Amino acid sequence: MESSTLVWLLPAPPLVAFFIIMLLTNRSKGLSHFLGVGAAFLSFVGSMAIVVLALQSGHLGEEPFTSVLNWIPTADTWFQIGVWVDPLTVGTLFFVAITILMIFIYSIGYHNYGQPKGDHDAPGLPPHGATVEDEHGHKHRVPSIEPMYSRFFAFISLFAFGMYVLVVSNNLLTLFVGWEIMGLCSYLLIGFWYAKPSARAAAIKAFLTTRVGDVIMLLGLAYLYSLAGSLSYDVIFSEETLHLLTSTSAPVLGVSAAVLIGLFLFIGTIGKSAQWPLHVWLPDAMEGPTPVSAMIHAATMVSAGVYLVVRVFPIISAGMVHGEPTVTMNLMAFIGAFTGLFAATIAVAQNDIKRVLAYSTISQLGYMIAAIGIGAYVAAAFHLFTHAFFKALLFLGSGSVIHGVEHGVLHTGEEVDPQNMFNMGGLRKKMPITFWTFLIGGFALSGFPFITAGFWSKDEILADAFAHSSWAVLIVLALAALLTAFYTMRQITLTFLGKSRTESAEHAVESKWTMTFPLVFLAAFAIIAGWPGIPGDFPIIGGFIPNFIHEFIGETLAEHPETITFNWIPLLISLAVSLGGLFLGWLVYKDVPAGAPDPLEKPLGPIYRLLKNKYYFDELYDLIFVRPAYWMSRTFTYLWLDRKIIDGVLHTVSRVSFSLGGLLRNYIDKPIVNGFGDFVGESVKRLGKSARFIQTGRIQQYMVMALIIAFGTLFYYLFILSQ
User: Fold this and answer.
1) Closest listed residue to residue 511, CA positions, set 405, 409, 419
2) Residue 440 domain-assigned?
3) Distance in angstroms (rounded) separating the CA atoms of residues 99 and 121
4) Number of domains in the chain
5) Per-residue pLDDT tens for 259-276?
6) Taking the CB of the first residue and of the last residue of the chain, which one, N or C, has fewer CB atoms within 10 A?
7) What is the largest CA-CA distance in the chain?
8) Which residues of the chain fall short of a pLDDT of 50?
9) Whose CA is closest to 83, among 186, 154, 12?
């Protein structure tokens, strides 16, 4: 099979699985997860085959695998779609295929396959089949577990399909199709437990927030197409098109078309990758099942946002003069660095084990955006690559922890929140596999030196910031890295170390193998995924492994990025913030007793409340967007537009109709229609009276006698004539 044909087939298995599960196997849990996992495995095998073929091809950056088909007729030409495999595609396919497959396998155990029908993984959700009443008084029936289980595998299969379409597309339009498919799936899966009001609200919030960025991104695509006449990579990234974009003035803002298009596309990434100020949807997305969180944070949604800006980096960087960043790049550097520190501060004061990881994802994505802003797109791609493995590991590990504590809740009947880290403790001995794998993932997130993949990719970003003299970015990201190590060790210490702070934690048990196997598998990549990015001039160990990331991913663009030389300063900064943050986190939280408040609550005071309430951004958006929208909809739409205009028009029409009806009744119906009817009726009445008179006996006798005389006379004359 040709490589281009194989690339076309990569998205197909998850899509086929989605339709078969929805239409045929939704009543069979076993068949449904078999189809879902089987489809993910087929796409995984195909992806690994593409990776091997790509590595053997040589100059993939100059000669990518590509294939096109005619799709939509445009006058005398066709809008073409196709597949495109270059170094960036290969690296993305590698981590996407692995993480998706592991998440699918994990989901079998997470959803309690083989357990009694009453068991499920939705905390606070009534038993399946029960009737519940929502906040508006409407009654809903919680569906039975088989369709819900199958529904989950159908939706995440469609989710995987959307990501594969996005990655292998050769143009921005079909990339946008995959982008929007994932937006739909995030809505369906965040609100998967739709009997919970909080899950429904989170799904709507995610959908509407990401649509803000998506609409502006679509405007950027339309403007790009109007200028370039195409959205295919080989056209829009050509020197002729880039020169056209930089030399054309945009109709607004007084910038070039390249800058405006880059800004519009970046705003799409702000929404999809939950960067400030559109970050508010991602923490609430934790309402969905934990495998969904892993899909969103590692394999699909937010990774797609960073993939987009790395992919369109030629447009974003078009117009650079003597290495000076463009307007779009400066904005990206600011928003990325600010978001990295902003989200890290919030994570310090969160107690929900999954919400800590959610804000961690926002922060780490800020690293990647900032790296692209300073021109280090290879470092951004490298951190995207390593982050996918250790963040998928951490989310799946958090789900394993929640399952273990939920087992204790069911065993003891204790009413505690199984996701609150202050209700845990001592799980290191209860759940050893989960502990060691979570520890590896946490250390990778913290950038634990030399051993973990996160160290090499995060250090690469700091080194690039130092080499480009981006001092503000370097300082802000270093502070974010310090807080990252601190809240990660806080999470590990509160969850696994010390003594159990509740009876539920005391009775926690290790998860089943379908959950622990993906943890072990991903833990290995949380370590080794950083090795291909070790700089060649790194002391002692540099050069033992080729710097595959820089050499291979760097081929994506025509101009290969410059290789920065090793410097001790960013390395020492990286070591200090990582080890210092880990030590401080352990020191502050190592002896927290049961029922005690957060040790930071008293010393930080109002600042702690500010961080715990996420800088009150939800309340702020509610004040400036949600409430005015409700007020406008009620005042202008309901009371003015609906009641006065729409209802007014309808009432006017009804009054005119009644008036016209009165006129018709008085001047046409009564005198003409009714008059004619009365005349006909009276005539019929008189005719009836005549008929009744005729029916009397005397008239009948006269008539009989007249008939006899007439017939007699006729007979007489006929007889005479015959003589």
Assistant:
1) 405
2) yes
3) 21
4) 2
5) 999 999 999 999 999 999
6) C
7) 156
8) 114-124, 128, 144-145
9) 12
